[in-house]
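User: I'm putting together notes for a lab meeting next week and I want to include a structural view of one of the chains we've been expressing. I don't have a solved structure, so I'd like a prediction I can at least talk through. The sequence is below, exactly as it appears in our construct file.
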Amino acid sequence: MFETIKNCFKNKEIRKKIWITLLILLIFRLGCYIPVPGMDADSFAQQINDVSFLELMSSITGGSLANATLFALGISPYINASIIIQLLSVGIPYLERLSKQGEEGRKRIAQITRYVTILLAIAQSVGIIVNFGIQGGAIELHLFGGNAIGETGAGWIAGIFLTVVYTAGAMIVMWLGERITEYGVSNGISLIIFVGIISTAGNQLVTKFTDVFGGNPSVLWEIAGFIILTVVEFTAIVAVDLSERKIPVQYAKQVKGRRMYGGQSSVIPMRIAGAGVMPLIFAFAIISVPAMLASLFWPNSGFETGVTEWFSGSSPYWYGQLIYMVTLCLLIFAFSFFYASMQFNPEDVSKTIQQNGGFIQGIRPGRPTADYLKRINNRITLFGAIYLSLVAFIPSILGIVATALSWNTDLISVFSTTGILIVVSVALELDKQLQSQLMMKNYKGFLK
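Assistant: Thanks for the context. Below is the predicted structure for the 448-residue chain, given as structure tokens.
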């Protein structure tokens, strides 16, 4: 990858794209430090850390959500909107037609996604303000003569103000991501998530090194353990992420006019982790809904206590953690198979192979080929779901071990395995994008 980056800087056009990308990412990081008036960042961060999904979202925003800054929502509303539109494209005929209309259809879908992003940003802003403002006093506003949100005075005006600010921040982040995609080197949304997670880990490491220079050399053991653990996790995730099952396809020779076509062999690559991190994000989002609803509508009630006891990863009782883990595992499996069915359609692949005169050795064309591909896809998806389940549970297992051994868990939790999975996936995709752009430039130079 470093060799690819060095070669990219030798090309003027790609070097310009890289500098544009770095400049936009710098603007994004500056926005993550712009404070919003009326917010108690310490109380806000404490409540964010009590919910695993919100903690993951905070790491994606580079700690901006926990610090209650301008870009607190980050890119999450746009991600959720994209997922919703992608799912609806399967069931709504209008969106399905747009997805098949080429460039114009994609532009129309992108515009619809932006509108949905605005709605989701408003909904998330209102949820944050109402939930954390009423429950923990994280929002104590004295704007326009108002008190805390929900109290007498003009607090509702301050609530509208914060909703506008957070929604505007989410739209600015979405705009920055689209500019990276248009003028930069790769998918801007993925790079923003990548930078957010990396900066979260970087901030924690800076704090630890400050402790070392402040006269606490024992922290060096924590840093060494964190580096070793990160290297092992990176190696394992890269090995699984790059692994794939290649199904050989043979194409028969065809005579068209005076020329002969076909007679070649190809492969159908089927990745084990083809769904990426999306099943994890969806599973964490769904499983955190009961706790969020309980704290929002029934605070300090028996229902909230029951949810915390029976259905929480931070439950003080073993049975609560067990129920939480089993439910999370089932959700990961369900979303893994759902995404696999969306990304790979055996019937369409079989039809395409047959129309081009191809066949899989030992399998009859048509329906038998589709059944064979479906069976292989289900097996691969099963192993992919097991892999994602292990990825989800490793932080909890490491946290239990560290607590039992009286270790500090700050650095262990700074890089959740889910975050590492996202970082590795984006880094590999960025490397592929840079290599493809280098190849295009080399071809152009050869033609000239």
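A couple of points you could mention at the meeting. DSSP finds 19 helices and five strands in the chain. Strands lie at 244-251, 254-256, 259-261, 265-271, 358-359.

User: Perfect, that's what I needed.
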